[in-house]
Amino acid sequence: MTNDKTKWARLAMAIDAEGCIGISRTVLKTSTGRDYFGYDLKVSVANTSMKLMRWLVRYFGGEFRPKQLGKLGVEQCYEWFVTGGYGKIEKILLGTLPYHIIKREQALIALEWVRMRGQENPQRRAEFHVACMALNSGESPTTNMSSIGAPAS
Q1: pLDDT (tens digit, 9 = 90+) per residue, 87-118?
Q2: CB–CB of 2/59 below 8 Å?
Q3: Nearest Cα to 39, choosing from 146, 142, 114?
Q4: Cα–Cα distance between 55 and 60 in angstroms, integer?
Q5: DSSP states of the chain as a string?
Q6: CA nearest neighbour of 47 among 27, 65, 23
Q7: How far is CA 32 from CA 25, 35, 118, 120, 132, in A?
Q8: Which end of the chain is more exposed for a tag (fewer CB within 10 A), N or C?
Q9: Sign of the torsion formed by the C-alpha atoms of 140, 144, 146 and 149
Q10: How far apart are CA 151 and CA 153, in angstroms?
Q11: Partners of 77 in the beta sheet?
Q12: What gap in Å lies between CA 78 and CA 62, rounded to an integer?
C-alpha cells in the first residue's frame, strides 16, 4: 500500500464520486433454523475505466470485477473493492479520512464498525446499517450516532 498522500487523496475522491462505503444486511439462519440479520461492510469504487481499476489495485490492493454495463448500456462497468478483511478496510479508511468531502460520515461509521471486531452488539450494528443507508440516500441518520468520531476504547 502506498504512502503517497496524493494517491490517498485521489482514492478518497474516487470513493466520494464513484464509490460506496456501505453496510449491507442479509437474513441468515442459525444451525437451529432461526433467522437473524448478518451485516457486512464494503468499501468500493465503480467505474468504466480499466485504467482506474488497475491503478487502485496497484496502489491499494484489493480486487476488481465486471459489474454491469454503464449508464448507456454500452460500456462495461467494473467494481473495485477492498479485500483482506476489516484490518485492511480500517487502513484504507484511515488513509482516506482526511480527504473525504462527501463520504466522511460514512467513513467514520465504518471505522467504528471495524473497531467492533469480535463484539456481539446487534443493536449497534443495526444502527450503523441504518445510518449508512440514510447517508448514502442523501438523508441524515436518525439513530443515535453521537459516538461517531470518538476515539475507540
Answers
A1: 899 999 999 999 999 999 999 999 998 998 88
A2: yes
A3: 114
A4: 8
A5: ----HHHHHHHHHHHHHHEEEEEEEEEEE-TTS-EEEEEEEEEEEEES-HHHHHHHHHHH--EEEEEEE-TTSSSEEEEEE--SHHHHHHHHHHHHGGG-SSSHHHHHHHHHHHTTTT---HHHHHHHHHHHHHHHTTPPP-S--TTTTSPP-
A6: 65
A7: 20, 9, 22, 19, 31
A8: C
A9: negative
A10: 6
A11: 68
A12: 13
Phi, psi (deg, nearest 5) at residue 54: -65, -40
Whole-model pTM: value is 0.80
**151 confidence band (pLDDT: 50, 70, 90):** very low
Cβ(21)–Cβ(15) below 8 Å: yes
C-alpha cell at 30: 442459525
The Cα-based distances of 114 to 28, 61, 108 in angstroms read 20, 18, 10
pLDDT of residue 29: 84
Mean pLDDT of the chain: 86
**94 vs 72: CA distance, rounded Å:** 35
Distance of alpha carbon 22 from alpha carbon 153, whole angstroms: 23
Residue 84 identity: G
CB 135 within 8 A of CB 106: yes
pLDDT band at 140 (very low <50, low <70, confident <90, very high): low
